[in-house]
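re: ur question from the group chat, yeah i did fold both. here u go
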Amino acid sequence: MYIILYILYILVVLYLYKKYKIKKERFQDKNKIIVTCFAGREYNMVILTKYLDKLIEKNKIDEIHIWDYTRDPADTKYVDTLKDKYTLMYPSNKKNWNEYYEYYKKNTNDNDIIIKLDDDILYIDVNNFDGFIEERRKNNCLLLFPSIINNGVCAWYQQKYNLIPDNLHKF
């Protein structure tokens, strides 16, 4: 009787794994920090990769995935030069991000932390990076954003809360 129940249990588990494409590792207690980047533009990536290299060198992250969303053939060629340092991902359709989200849905553990970057990030505070990760772990929030300075709206709020001094520029 117990053998029949055990076999039935195994069959149900295998069916669920197959149906929902759930990987066994998803239930293990791993906790990786994965940086992902929508890449492209060489002139930005040259700067960003210096910070990514520092994060790897200081053991602050476990993996870097560079997603090739380039539009210019010269940028594609540049991204290909990164294959020895990072994991390169080549979506079949560069006009949407479905493959990106599906990949992490199927290939990450529930405890993994995914840090999504765009290629226009030109500064990462490597020394305070651990604090960002700890804040994410402590609050177990779905999304957490650092202070991003890339447009007037963000800068206005940052200035309002005294993160950008008034004498620098008035937003």
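okk and heres the other one u asked abt
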Amino acid sequence: MDERIQKIKENIETFLMESMEHQNKKIDYILIDSEKNETYILASDGVFYEGRCKKLIIPAPDGEKGILANHENMVIAVNVGVAHMSLDGEEWKDIAVGVGFVEIVNNRVTLIVDTAEKPEDIDVRRAQEQKERAEERLRQQQSIQQYYHTQASLARAMNRLRVSQDKKWNL
């Protein structure tokens, strides 16, 4: 049983590390209008960010998607992971995001996710406790539905821990 949990943890860590190393991966770019690049990041508890954004990279099921200027309208699924946002085109800010989707319509980008957190807003102790609870639940006998729910909880906790260890930023 412990080998299975270790394998799951390794798979999640590998996925998260790969999404953090976006400069070494092929990224499809979606473009935002540089003049009226309105960007909204909405989480279940309210508006996370509203304003201009030069570049946005989101974790998608088929890899990371970069959003730049002047692209056609589309909707893309978002996975648990790290979104990278550049307000000035130079400095990147990391955001821990949950599952959701991004909508691009008329040069307006709306990212709607379960959770969106800045690194400094993450309670590391609480995230570590969530990770430990999820690992303990994986060791117990569960239904298939509970198993996938626990696996998702572990992925969210590990993502929060990874982002909290990185740079801090101010909006």
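fwiw on the second one: Residues 80 and 156 are 7 Å apart (CA to CA). The first helix runs from residue 2 to 20. idk if thats what u expected
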